[in-house]
């Protein structure tokens, strides 16, 4: 095992780009890396491995960047450092030089590379010559996209990315998947129709509501040649549950639940939070099981809460307040106030200001606008089956910076 997540930081410890491969860690733990590193340097003990609780940081420094691997598992140390140096090698071959500017200028292709370099914490395709055959710096439309070389498997990976904000939205994209649960006898062929923009334009329906899918990956059961020829998604499905396809849209999306925070610190005595959450989707939809996680100082105590909706609890193991709202209708706005005592005389600013995390799901709602137009079952005996479609939107890597 290599890594749960990989980060690229600037010289001050700010995250430039990151990839969560396993989903088994709290990504905000990276905010502890730079203070821990500075502490080690002040003690005169500089090591490439830093332990913090049950999290382990492995890092290398290259130019003005830190490449950090984070894991909770008992990782193969040699593999981790080999992989970090391999990332440097691949990026240098793509961008000539690896530095903060080249990271900022090429973040889209870097995410593509990170997705291919590692899969679920295990190194995958790390040969830059193979990668350059199908991840290029030239633009390609989906219908003329280069075919992956035979050296690369057709495995489908899941991505967990989303929106970060610091006053404004910095990066926004939609990551989705079509999942199926099949209970059919025999060897039926299925054909799935989506509101695919390329298909609509080629068949004279360009003005109809459609979606331009990008970075599409199919399950190995899909006939790729058929899709390339006429955009038909044709397949003989495996039995049970599987992921038919995943896609990514580089589309600006305003955060579906926007959170604003006002934090008042009273030196060495108390800290007060006023958190406002607003649902930015239509009234006919409702977000369920909303969790807003607000970081608080490590030495905070004596919590007091007041909310206009939902409930709050102090989670000292996370150094955070968790505000839970079971049902959050569209177009609504709720407030939460929290008060903590601060017994410590240490500088509160030394911990930095970690982001607020938001988790939720919205049933019967698609942010991308993708629609299943039909699902046809082609089988010689002509037996009857009942297709059923459910749409759902879930949060991804969704963080909002505190002011």
TrEMBL record:
A Gene Ontology biological process term: vesicle-mediated transport
Keyword field contains Chloroplast: no
Keyword Protein transport attached: yes
Record's keyword terms, sorted: Cytoplasmic vesicle, Golgi apparatus, Membrane, Phosphoprotein, Protein transport, Transport
Entry GO CC: clathrin adaptor complex; clathrin-coated vesicle membrane; Golgi apparatus; organelle subcompartment
Membrane topology: Peripheral membrane protein
Known role: Subunit of clathrin-associated adaptor protein complex 1 that plays a role in protein sorting in the trans-Golgi network (TGN) and endosomes. The AP complexes mediate the recruitment of clathrin to membranes and the recognition of sorting signals within the cytosolic tails of transmembrane cargo molecules.
Family: Belongs to the adaptor complexes medium subunit family.
Protein name as catalogued: MHD domain-containing protein
Organism: Paralvinella palmiformis
């Amino acid at each position: 095992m290599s890594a749960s997540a990989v980060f690229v930081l600037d010289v001050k410890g700010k995250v430039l780009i990151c990839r969560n491969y396993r989903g088994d860690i709290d990504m905000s733990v990276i905010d502890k890396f730079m203070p821990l590193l500075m502490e080690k340097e002040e003690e005169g003990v500089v090591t490439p491995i830093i332990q913090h609780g049950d999290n382990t940081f492995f890092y290398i420094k290259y130019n003005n960047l830190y490449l950090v691997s984070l894991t909770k598992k008992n990782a193969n140390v040699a593999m981790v450092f080999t992989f970090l140096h391999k990332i440097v090698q691949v990026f240098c071959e793509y961008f000539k030089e690896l530095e903060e500017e080249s990271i900022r200028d090429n973040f889209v292709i870097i995410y593509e590379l990170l997705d291919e370099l590692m899969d679920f914490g295990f190194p995958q395709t790390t040969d830059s010559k193979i990668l350059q055959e199908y991840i290029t710096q030239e633009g390609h439309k989906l219908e003329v996209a280069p075919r992956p070389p035979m050296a690369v498997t057709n495995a489908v990976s899941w991505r967990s990315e989303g929106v970060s904000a610091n006053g404004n939205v910095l990066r926004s994209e939609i990551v989705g998947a079509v999942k199926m649960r099949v209970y059919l006898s025999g060897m039926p062929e299925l054909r799935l129709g989506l509101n695919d923009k390329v298909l609509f334009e080629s068949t004279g329906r360009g003005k109809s509501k459609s979606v331009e899918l990008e970075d599409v990956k199919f399950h190995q059961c899909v006939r790729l040649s058929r899709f390339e020829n006429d955009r038909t998604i044709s397949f003989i499905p495996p039995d049970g549950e599987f992921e038919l396809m995943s896609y990514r849209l580089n589309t600006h999306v305003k955060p579906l639940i926007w959170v604003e925070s006002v934090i008042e610190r009273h030196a060495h005595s108390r800290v007060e939070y006023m958190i406002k959450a607003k649902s930015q989707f239509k009234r006919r939809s409702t977000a369920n099981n909303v969790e807003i996680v607000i970081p608080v100082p490590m030495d905070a105590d004596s919590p007091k809460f007041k909310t206009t909706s939902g409930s709050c609890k102090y989670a000292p193991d996370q150094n955070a307040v968790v505000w839970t709202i079971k049902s959050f209708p569209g177009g609504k706005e709720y407030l939460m106030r929290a008060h903590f005592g601060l017994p410590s005389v240490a500088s509160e600013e030394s911990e930095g200001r970690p982001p607020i995390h938001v988790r939720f799901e919205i049933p019967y709602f698609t942010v991308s606008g993708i629609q299943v137009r039909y699902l046809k079952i082609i089988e010689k005996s002509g037996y009857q089956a009942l297709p059923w479609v459910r749409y759902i939107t879930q949060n991804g890597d969704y963080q909002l910076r505190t002011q």
